[in-house]
Amino acid sequence: MTTAGLVLAAGSGSRYGQPKAPVVLDGERLVDRAVRVLTEGGCDPVLVVLGAWVGEVDGADIVVNDAWPEGMGSSLREGLRTLTERSGVEAVVVTLVDLPGLTAEAIRRVATTAPEALVVQATYSGERGHPVRLSRELWAQAIDVAHGDEGARRLLRGREDVVLVEVGDVADGYDVDVPSE
Fold first, then answer.
1. Cα–Cα distances in angstroms (integers) from residue 166 to residues 36, 48, 180, in the given order
2. 3-state secondary structure of 110
3. DSSP 144-161
4. Numbers of helices and strands, H then E, in the chain
5. What residues contact 116, with CB distance under 8 A and at least 6 apart?
6. Pairing verdict, β 127-135 and 91-96
7. Are the beta carbons of 20 and 28 closer than 8 angstroms?
8. Tens digits of per-residue pLDDT, 121-174?
9. Is 133 in contact with 120 (CB distance < 8 Å)?
């Protein structure tokens, strides 16, 4: 199964005070770290959706979301629309740019667990989080429901076929919201 990676990184980082994608943490930009862990976790191709900040990102295809002020949902729509045009990609692992504790092993687990499943979602000590793997079969539905800051949450809510995979032993689902974090 060919699984792409998708980094949602278009926001302005209003609570952070600047877009998070170019923020350097431990010597590496958050956007570069996200691309690296997706790649090391087996995702190919990797797309990054940018908006408030646009710049070069090695190892990834850039998708510019001009509608980024609408929220994360618009970035998910843009990323999935772009992937829909690519043949051979059967699933996508979606993550956020501001998860510095995400690891390649967590990506690998989400990407490879239950390959037949329509949705696989990471959990941290039982709490649902990112990344989420969506089968191509669900992309049109995800595009339809992704609005505001909800992304695919409406699509996942109430679904009994979501496969949950624990990654808290190899990753941290903590997101960076303010510079002091």
1. 21, 25, 28
2. helix
3. HH--TT-TTHHHHTT-S-
4. 5, 9
5. none
6. antiparallel
7. no
8. 999 999 999 999 999 999 999 999 888 777 777 778 878 899 999 999 999 988
9. yes
pLDDT mean over 11-36: 94
What pairs with residue 127 in β-bridges? 124
Map out the domains of the chain with their CATH numbers.
3-166 (3.90.550.10)
Buried b (16+ CB within 10 A) or exposed e, 68-80: bebbbbbbbbbbb
Strands 3-9 and 162-166: unpaired
Do the Cβ atoms of 4 and 89 come closer than 8 Å?
yes
- The model carries a pTM of 0.95
Task: For residue 29, list its beta bridge partners.
Answer: 24
State the Cα–Cα distance between residues 27 and 20, nearest whole angstrom: 14
CB 124 within 8 A of CB 173: yes
Burial of 87 (0-12, 13-18, 19+ CB in 10 A): exposed
- In DSSP terms, 49 is beta-bridged to 8, 63
Give the side-chain half-sphere CA count within 13 A for 74.
Answer: 14
